[in-house]
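forwarding from the other thread:

> can someone predict this with adenosine-5'-diphosphate?

sure thing
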Amino acid sequence: MTRDILDRLEVQQGDITRLRVDAIVNAANRSLLGGGGVDGAIHRAAGPGLLEACRKIGGCPTGEARITPGYRLPAAYVIHTVGPVYSGKSQDARLLADCYRNSLRLAAENTVRTIAFPAISCGVYGYPIQEACTIAVDTTAAVLPELSGIEKVIFILFSSGDKAVYDTYLEGLKQARQ
Ligand code: ADP
């Protein structure tokens, strides 16, 4: 992992629906018909057009990703991905990595340059934040070299505790490369 890949990653604390980026990622469920948490917040902020678009897509398997416009959001696109419900089995990590990889590839196909991720699966789906952070950052850093159009990936965390986990992990990676 080279230093400039890490320079394309950023950690923020806040509400993903407020971000003026090309695409925000939604931690959706397989129906794509809306839920609580970040999904509910994104649908509220985007307005009814988003639910209509999601209904037409007709669902999404765990680990895959689908794209819609952002409607009333500042973001042009929403990329909906379905994280695993944490079970403690090895398939969890594979499916969570798939979410990041597939979302980033779909973003690049749509010429997205800036994209923000919430902590997929770390709310109702129960994924431990430390493990999820490692998967999110490592998968993103591994796929970015083949996606040169993506300039900035923001990991946006709702809580200061979750943000500290990401800050510490990224800082460790940066120091290891110096
Ligand atoms: P999942 O069902 O994938 O676990 P949740 O929406 O329950 O998804 O939670 C995913 C993460 O998103 C949690 O860490 C939660 O704190 C966070 N979250 C909830 N609302 C927002 C928001 N508006 N912006 C950013 N992150 C959010």
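The mean pLDDT is 97. thats all i got for now
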